[in-house]
Specification:
This protein is an alpha+beta fold. The protein has helices spanning 24-49, 57-75, 88-104, 116-124, 129-151, 156-161, 164-217, 236-245, 275-280, 326-362, 367-395, 407-425, 443-459, 491-496, 505-510, 518-528; strands at 221-226, 231-234, 260-261, 285-292, 299-309, 315-324, 403-406, 427-432, 438-441, 465-474, 477-484, 532-538, 542-550. The chain has a six-stranded antiparallel beta sheet with strand order 2-1-6-5-4-3, sandwiched between helices. Strands 8-10-11-13-12 form a five-stranded mixed beta sheet, covered by helices on one side. A two-stranded antiparallel sheet has the order 7-9. 29% of the residues are buried.
C-alpha cells in the first residue's frame, strides 16, 4: 500500500519514521486512526450535550462498528491476504457512518461529513482510481439516500437537497486522486533516480576498489594532489616513499622538511624545485631524478608530473609518479667506473708501446720492418683514440679547439677516405657540398663525427644502396646531413640511438660489429661545439643523421 492517505505524503510529527517504512498492519491502522479519533470526539460531544442520543441503537451501532473496524485493522493479517484487501475498511466506514448519521442527526449535524475520511483513504491509496472516484460520490450519496428509500417518505426535493455532499466528496476525491497520482509519478521518478544513483555508486565503488588494487599492485609511487597541494590519493608504494623521506625525529613533516636530495645525493633540493611543489605550481615534467632518504636506505627515484584541468581549462591539481631507479643508477655508475678504470689501465701500456715504436722507427729500419712497425703504431693509435673517447664518454664532455676551417673540404675528405669501403659494400657514396664553407670548428673532432656517421651509413646498408653527405648554411648554422637507404630503425630504437653502448635489434641480429660508442661520442662532440644532432629513420627505408653547429662561435 503506497500513500494510502494524505498523511502518507511526508513525515508527520508524530511519526517516528516515514509512513512507507511501517509494516502493512500499522499502515492500515494509521490510515483508520483519524476517523476513529474523530468518532471518539463525536461520542464525547454527544455524551456531554445530548445524552439521550447515546441510547439510540443506530448511534450505538456507529460507535461499536468503529471500535470493531479499528480492531479489525490490527487483528486481520493483511500481509497474508491479497494486497488491496485492506480497501474493504473504508467501504465498511461508509456503512458505519451511515448508521451514525441516522442515529445522531437529531443531536449533531454534519456527521455525514465524516465520509471525507474513507473518501480520502480510497483516493489516496492510488489503487483503482476510477472505482475510488465512483465510491467518493456513491458512498456519501448512499449514506443519505438509502435511509430515505428505507423510510419510503420522500420527495424529489429531498433527493436534490442531498446531492451537495456527494458532489463535494467527489470534488475532494478528484483533488486527492490528482495529487496522489502526481506524487506517485514523482515517487516513481525519484525511485528510478535513486536506483540509478545506487547503481552508479556501486559502479564507482567497484571502480574505486579496482583502481586502489591496481595502484597498490604496481611498483610505482602514485600521488594525486589538488590545486592547493593537499593529497587526494596516495598508493601503498608512495606511502613507503614518503616514509623513506621523513626525518626520523619528525612525525608529520611538511614538504620543506622531507629529505629530498639532488643527483649528488648530498645537497637538499630547494623547496621550489622539489617534484611535488613543482606539480602544485602547475608544471609538467618527465624523468626528474631525485634521491629520497639518507644513509644506506637512500633511493633514487625518477619523477613525472602531469597537470589536471577542468572543462574550462583551469588547473585543478596534478598526478605525480615516482619510479624507483636505484638499481639502474647504481648499475650505470658501476659501468662508468668500470669503463674509466679499464680505460686508464689501457692508456699506460698503449703509451709505452707507441713510445718504443717511435724509437724503433727513428733507427731507419728496413722496409719490411718499417711496414710492420707502422701497422703497430696505427693500431696502437687507434686503440689510444678509443680509450680517450671512452674516458670522454665517461666524463660526459669533450674538449674542442675551434679554428677557422673549410668544412666542405672536411666532408669531401671523409667521403673520399670511405669510398673503398663503400665500393666493397656495394654502396654508392657521394658528397653534395658548396665549393667552400668556413666555420670555427675543431677540424679533427668534426672529421671524427663525419667518419662515424659515414661509416655507420655504409655499415648499416648491407644490401647496397645510396649514401649522400650534404652540407649547407642554415640560419647562421652549418648543417650537415648523412642520408642512407639502408635498413633503418624502429621508433623505439631511434629514441635510444644516442645512448652509450646501445645497438639496435636489427644490428644485433645481423651481427654487424660495433660497441655502441660512435654516436654518443659524436653527439658529445657536436654539443661541445654548441650544436645539436638528431636522427630521422624509417625501418626498412633508411636513416638521416643531421648535425648543426654555429658558423661563428667565440
Amino acid at each position: 500500500m503506497s500513500d494510502p492517505t494524505a498523511w502518507s505524503s511526508g513525515r508527520l510529527r508524530f511519526f517516528k519514521r516515514p509512513f512507507h517504512e511501517y509494516r502493512l498492519t500499522d499502515r492500515v491502522a494509521l490510515s483508520q486512526m483519524p476517523l476513529f479519533v474523530t468518532t471518539l470526539l463525536t461520542a464525547f460531544l454527544v455524551w456531554a450535550f445530548f445524552p439521550d442520543t447515546m441510547g439510540n441503537p443506530l448511534f450505538v451501532t456507529f460507535l461499536v462498528s468503529q471500535l470493531a473496524i479499528m480492531a479489525l485493522c490490527y487483528v486481520i493479517p493483511w500481509d497474508r491476504l491479497p494486497y488491496t484487501s485492506f480497501l474493504a475498511i473504508p467501504l465498511l466506514d461508509f456503512i458505519s457512518i451511515g448508521a451514525g448519521r441516522e442515529g445522531g442527526q437529531e443531536s449533531l449535524t454534519g456527521i455525514s461529513l465524516l465520509a471525507v475520511f474513507p473518501v480520502i483513504w480510497l483516493c489516496a491509496s492510488g489503487y483503482y482510481p476510477r472505482a475510488a472516484l465512483w465510491f467518493s460520490f456513491l458512498g456519501p450519496l448512499a449514506i443519505i439516500w438509502v435511509p430515505l428509500l428505507l423510510k419510503g417518505n420522500f420527495t424529489p426535493q429531498d433527493f436534490a437537497r442531498s446531492l451537495l455532499l456527494p458532489v463535494m466528496m467527489l470534488g475532494i476525491g478528484v483533488s486527492v486522486s490528482v495529487l496522489t497520482l502526481s506524487m506517485m509519478r514523482q515517487q516513481k521518478q525519484l525511485e528510478e533516480k535513486d536506483e540509478q544513483l545506487r547503481a552508479n555508486l556501486r559502479t564507482s565503488k567497484r571502480q574505486e576498489s579496482l583502481l586502489n588494487t591496481v595502484l597498490d599492485t604496481v611498483h610505482l609511487g602514485v600521488l594525486a594532489i589538488d590545486a592547493d597541494g593537499h593529497d587526494i590519493l596516495m598508493n601503498r608504494k608512495q606511502r613507503a616513499n614518503h616514509e623513506l623521506a621523513r626525518p626520523k625525529n619528525i612525525a608529520d613533516p611538511n614538504e620543506s622538511q622531507l629529505l629530498v636530495y639532488g643527483p649528488d645525493r648530498k645537497t637538499l633540493i630547494p623547496v621550489q624545485e622539489r617534484p611535488v611543489r613543482r606539480a602544485v605550481l602547475g608544471e609538467t615534467f618527465t624523468d626528474y631524478l631525485v634521491w629520497l632518504g639518507d644513509g644506506k636506505d637512500q633511493r633514487a627515484l625518477v619523477t613525472t608530473a602531469r597537470a589536471m584541468k577542468d572543462s574550462d581549462g583551469n588547473f585543478t591539481g596534478s598526478v605525480i609518479v615516482f619510479s624507483d631507479v636505484t638499481d639502474l643508477v647504481n648499475a650505470l655508475t658501476a659501468k662508468d667506473d668500470f669503463v674509466s678504470s679499464v680505460s686508464h689501465e689501457f692508456r699506460t701500456p698503449l703509451t709505452s708501446i707507441l713510445g718504443y715504436v717511435e724509437i724503433l722507427l727513428a733507427d731507419d729500419p728496413d722496409e719490411p720492418e718499417r711496414e710492420m712497425l707502422e701497422i703497430i703504431r696505427r693500431n696502437s693509435e687507434r686503440l689510444l683514440t678509443l680509450v680517450s673517447d671512452l674516458l670522454a664518454s665517461r666524463n660526459g664532455q669533450l674538449i674542442v679547439s675551434p679554428d677557422a676551417v673549410d668544412v666542405a673540404e672536411l666532408v669531401r675528405s671523409s667521403v673520399s677516405s670511405a669510398l673503398p669501403r663503400a665500393a666493397v659494400a656495394g654502396v654508392e657514396l657521394r658528397a653534395e657540398t658548396p665549393e667552400r664553407l668556413e666555420a670555427r670548428v675543431d677540424s679533427a673532432r668534426i672529421s671524427q663525427v663525419l667518419d662515424n656517421l659515414v661509416s655507420n651509413a655504409i655499415k648499416y646498408s648491407p644490401d647496397g644502396g645510396e649514401v649522400v653527405v650534404s652540407l649547407a648554411r642554415e640560419n647562421g648554422h652549418l648543417a650537415c646531413r648523412v642520408k642512407d637507404t639502408g635498413m633503418g630503425m624502429s621508433p623505439e630504437d631511434t629514441s635510444e640511438v644516442f645512448a652509450k653502448f646501445f645497438r639496435t635489434s636489427n644490428v644485433r641480429r645481423t651481427a654487424i660489429p660495433g660497441v655502441g660508442l660512435g654516436l654518443p661520442i659524436s653527439k658529445a662532440i657536436v654539443e661541445a661545439h654548441g650544436g645539436t644532432i638528431d636522427v630521422e629513420s624509417t625501418l626498412g627505408e633508411g636513416t638521416t643523421f643531421t648535425f648543426r653547429v654555429p658558423v661563428q662561435r667565440s
